From TrEMBL:
Residues 18-57 bind DNA. The keyword tRNA-binding does not apply. It is found in: Cytoplasm. SUPFAM superfamilies: NAD(P)-binding Rossmann-fold domains (SSF51735), Winged helix' DNA-binding domain (SSF46785). This is Redox-sensing transcriptional repressor Rex. HAMAP family: Rex (MF_01131).
Amino acid sequence: MSNKRENISMSVIRRLPRYYRFLGDLLKHGVTRISSRELSQRMGLTASQIRQDLNCFGGFGQQGYGYIVDQLYREIGKILGTDKRRRAILIGAGNLGRAIANHMAFETRGFDLIGIFDQNPNLIGQVIKGIPVQDSRGLEEFCSRNHPAVAVLCIPRESTHEMATRLTKLGIKGFWNFSHYDLSVHFPDAVIENVHLGDSLLTLSYRVSELERKE
């Protein structure tokens, strides 16, 4: 299974959270069983694509019966690691960092947010979602005691490389990076998810432009 997992394309992996989200919504609405055709209609994918994606991780459905929603939801959750509850810290308690801490349900996505840090004295001591903002100068001591695995970066672009270098030395294995500085190029041994909100907005601009062009 491990060799099979290593050969799974990133495009398949990036579809898994969407399956997880849709299946969670089905559970909330009391749906217990669904066919690949019905799921494809809800998600805007082909039934063949869904079957191919899920077959990468083993067979979950039965021909003529479909998928048991609760079982598939739990299995995809395990694949995504939502049962691991890895410790995470957030760096940067400004508007973006505050919004992410308040509104992102880390605990349902495989993480426990255990610390928030900033260097702005006006923010240090404030409490966000029950977590007091600590001085960034205390990162070394905090990480040596609590061993977080992941850092969420909501800091200025110019500070990102130095902070990532520092955190990597403290044992951070993964970064959820909102800084607009592409860490992947400089930290090949870490797991990086760069989030470029501006790129998403530009993609929307292109698609709206194409829609208008066809009208």
